[in-house]
Amino acid sequence: MGIGNIFQVFQPKDKIFFVLFEKVTENLVAMSNDFNQGLQDFDLNDDSMLKKMSDYEHKNDEITHEIFVELGKNFITPFDREDIHELASGLDDIADYIYSSAKYIYLYKSPQQKAYTEFSLLIQKACVEIQHAFQNMKGFKNMKQVKEACIKINSIENIADDLLSNSMAELFETHDAINIIKVSSVLNYLEIVTDKAEDVANAIENILIKYA
Amino acid sequence: MGIGNIFQVFQPKDKIFFVLFEKVTENLVAMSNDFNQGLQDFDLNDDSMLKKMSDYEHKNDEITHEIFVELGKNFITPFDREDIHELASGLDDIADYIYSSAKYIYLYKSPQQKAYTEFSLLIQKACVEIQHAFQNMKGFKNMKQVKEACIKINSIENIADDLLSNSMAELFETHDAINIIKVSSVLNYLEIVTDKAEDVANAIENILIKYA
Amino acid sequence: MGIGNIFQVFQPKDKIFFVLFEKVTENLVAMSNDFNQGLQDFDLNDDSMLKKMSDYEHKNDEITHEIFVELGKNFITPFDREDIHELASGLDDIADYIYSSAKYIYLYKSPQQKAYTEFSLLIQKACVEIQHAFQNMKGFKNMKQVKEACIKINSIENIADDLLSNSMAELFETHDAINIIKVSSVLNYLEIVTDKAEDVANAIENILIKYA
Question: Of A156, B24, B50, C115, which alpha carbon lies 20 to 30 A from B57's?
Fold first, then answer.
């Protein structure tokens, strides 16, 4: 038995959830980085960014499934089973909507909009804050940092709200109805990503209220 | 006292919820069958399909109300009261959005789209799987079948996602902005039905996690 | 120590939540009154209504924050902590979507639509019923009145549903794609307000089921 295995034997059973959430949030941070980078260097004829997003989305699905399997096996969980379910589903929604945003950007062949990269930067920041929140939840030690991350995510969502309305106002100046329908649809998917990040932050705050 | 009454006296109190959920899911299966049939033989001048959908929707409301009344009367429930509330609300949402889809198809006089019937077939399959899941939940005996039904509903939702994006791409090829707004609105309602079916599947999986 | 302070000392700790919910619902009633009035006397060149909506929205945020702070401090709550969190979030959503509706009405410079004021009247009625529900929840004494208020909110949401579809049918008669996109977007925000009111009513009914 190697050192790694010994460690695993003595590891409290409920740590597995923190390990899995760390994997999910790491995946989301990498996904949002590549999404943002892909939009900055956008090339409609090169769909490698879309393929990457699809891969990240599948990986997220797999880890989410692992979390649900562990929920079925473990009696001891760091917090209520429903809360773990809600967190995992919320993180999965974030990956789903980043992927949907990418899909419709390619599908509608909508030209690279400044607003798209502005949104992807906000999404990247939100994913980094979500990672911070989960890193600091381990052992319920750094609750202040968790709370600060949640506040930042809420403020990112407010900025995204304003970005959406300002982008829509600019978009209508094109007076091109079909283009307006396409771009507004992508902008709405992008804005939902930040809504889903806020949902995760709210679920975390709900857990803090119960256990703090 | 007739045999029916004797049976009811000895029936465990919590069976009433399975009986009512069986009624709801039976209603949903019939509704989705008639919706699919109605779209296949679509005739804008004959609104009997829309009237049927309205009737099914009202019937669903009534059984949902019965479930809530029973929740208020019964101390013993087969699973948490909140879970029963969530399941009943989720099933009610499915009926609501099928009805809304039908309503906007007639309202917008949007020509019969191939995508509409493709969606209605997916919706019908999802409703049949929901019925399977509830039939197998009785007594918590056939948990494997319940889980399989939930997996199928999730996979139907994925297919519906792709159907939506492919249909949107085709729709934009018409270059008719007003038609695009109308049809995309109906497609979105149809896609929400499969989202709501997935929500019910997730609520069921959540219950499995708690009780399995 | 003044009489006010003595009173506060002897006041059961959990009354603070009813006091705070009374503040939120009072704010929502005033907000919906001014929204309705502002739409009746609508003047695109005078954005004082929009500023008022922004102020009400901020005030709602502050009281919601107070509720969350109290949740963190109080061991004793009148009902489950998660339920208080859900109610506070639901009421916050109502204020958010009224503000969003106002914002997009000004942003899109969309002419005053009859449907807008019809919606704002429904929203005002829903907010009054929400206030009634909370006033009657104190001490769990007037449960019948709470239930009646919830039923009225549900029926307002049904009326709003029909208002939306009728307004959309009229809107398409303008045959002006860009105008249709703008107005339908505002109508959707307005309809979401009544959906959020229904969510609050459902959360209240859920609490009644647990405690009645």
Answer: C115
